[in-house]
Specification:
70 residues; Alpha-Beta Plaits; 2 helices; 4 strands; 33% strand; globular; binds copper (II) ion
Length: 70
């Protein structure tokens, strides 16, 4: 399944890389794309093994503001 998150607070490509890595290390996730311009992250996940709220929390713990988009 595909998930889109809004991610506020990214200011440069280092932030993009950081957010990308946080998402990529989560179980069952692939195809991570993070956009600085659109302030969002897009990825494929496995609903059985991926805990999306945990990903949102991990991003927020790093100082960004992430939220699930419908
Ligand atoms: Cu940055």
């Amino acid at each position: 399944m595909e998930k889109r998150l809004s991610v506020e607070g990214m200011t440069c490509r280092h932030c993009v890389k950081r957010v990308t890595k946080i998402i990529e290390k989560s179980p069952g996730v692939s195809g991570v794309q993070v956009s600085l311009e659109n302030k969002e992250a897009l990825f494929i996940y496995d609903p059985v093994v991926t805990n999306v709220p945990d990903i949102v929390k991990a991003i927020n713990d790093f100082g960004f503001t992430a939220a699930e988009k419908v």
